[in-house]
Write a structure and sequence with these properties.
It is a single chain. The chain is α+β, with helices and mostly antiparallel strands. The protein has three domains: 19-69 and 78-138, Ribosomal protein S10 (Alpha-Beta Plaits), CATH 3.30.70.600; 147-262, Histone RNA hairpin-binding protein RNA-binding domain (Helicase, Ruva Protein, domain 3); 267-297, no CATH class. It has helices spanning 30-46, 96-102, 139-142, 179-193, 196-204, 228-266, 281-287, and strands spanning 19-27, 50-56, 60-67, 78-94, 111-116, 122-128, 131-135, 153-156, 159-162. The strands form two sheets. Strands 1, 2, 3, 4, 5, 6 and 7 form a seven-stranded antiparallel beta sheet that branches. Strand 8 and strand 9 (159-162) form a beta hairpin. Helix 5 crosses helix 6 (228-266). It is elongated, with a radius of gyration of 34 Å. The termini are far apart. It comes from Ditylenchus dipsaci. One of its GO terms (cellular component) is small ribosomal subunit. Keywords: Cytoplasm, Ribonucleoprotein, Ribosomal protein.
Length: 297
């Protein structure tokens, strides 16, 4: 049956663009954290969305010291206690409109929620009463994508996790999974590698010849989960060790040059390589290509 030429085609409905979103939940109260995570996952599954999580991250322990009174004696004037911060990650593939519906839930007091997108744009969440309200950037920014510029970072959908080498052991504080932190550490290391001290170090000491320990400078591992202050301190130690190694190398080169100049000026003509002096016929014949055994037969 031929189609009706006067029949207008229906406008096609464009599919909604799904964004890869990572929800970060932090709290001191584990029960409240688990309750909010369960609510978010339940709302996403009811909408038939792809959900991964909650992923349990390493617990951070903060050691806090406070003064009891302005004046006092000894250690009695200080209070020492620990604060444990729990963290969960939830990965969801959803559109912006659907995410507004999912995040419209009641949250427990003391639970912080962050939603950084794959485009490095953040969805800001704030509590209005006991409700969670999301404010979104422009859709053109939501649909943007980035590419990882480092081969040692593996990307599993919307979750970035470092790939440890075979000889690496599981660190005590766990691995760093924050993409912005890994990118910042990568930038700092690359800036140091562009310096003349590191270029000379690579030429003089190949990677297979470097010894572990404090003998040769070693770049800090950017995938370990340590604090910002600890990372900056390790970067300073690495830079200082590179400059110290370069100064020692220049001192050794200058000493070797002076010694070679002294030997070349003091060695007589037609002498042995060890500086013994004198003319040796056998050695002269050997230099001309005659075997030493033929000199005695």
């Amino acid at each position: 049956m031929a189609g009706n030429p006067y029949k207008l085609d229906k406008p096609q409905v464009q599919d909604e663009v799904l964004d890869r979103i990572r929800i970060t939940l932090t709290s001191q109260n584990v029960n409240a954290l688990e309750k909010v995570s369960a609510q978010l996952i339940k709302g996403a599954k009811e909408e038939n969305l792809v959900v991964k999580g909650p992923i349990r991250m390493p617990t951070k322990t903060l050691r806090i010291t406070t003064r009891k009174t302005p004046c006092g004696e000894g250690s009695k004037t200080w209070d020492h206690y620990q604060m444990r911060i729990h963290k969960r990650l939830i990965n969801i593939k959803s559109s912006s409109e659907m995410l507004k519906k999912i995040t419209g839930i009641s949250i427990q007091p003391g639970v912080d929620v962050e939603l950084p997108l794959h485009s490095l744009q953040c969805i800001i969440l704030h509590a209005s009463g006991d409700m969670l309200i999301a404010s979104f950037p422009k859709m053109s920014e939501l649909n943007a994508s980035i590419e990882l510029d480092h081969p040692d970072v593996a990307e599993f959908d919307d979750f970035v996790y470092p790939v440890p080498k075979p000889d690496w052991e599981e660190p005590k504080n766990g691995w760093c999974c924050d993409r912005s932190i890994i990118a910042r550490r990568t930038k700092q290391i690359e800036e140091v590698k562009k310096k003349p001290a590191y270029q000379e170090y690579v030429e003089e000491v190949p990677k297979i010849c470097r010894l572990p320990g404090r003998i040769h400078p070693k770049a800090p591992n950017k995938f370990l989960n340590y604090s910002r202050r600890s990372c900056d301190a390790q970067m300073k130690i690495w830079k200082r060790s590179l400059h110290t190694w370069r100064q020692d190398l220049e001192a050794k080169k200058s000493t070797y040059t002076v010694e070679m100049c002294f030997r070349s000026n003091s060695q007589p003509e037609n002498s042995l390589p060890d500086g013994g002096g004198g003319y040796v016929p056998a050695y002269a014949a050997y230099q001309n290509g005659c075997p030493l055994n033929s000199m005695f037969y």
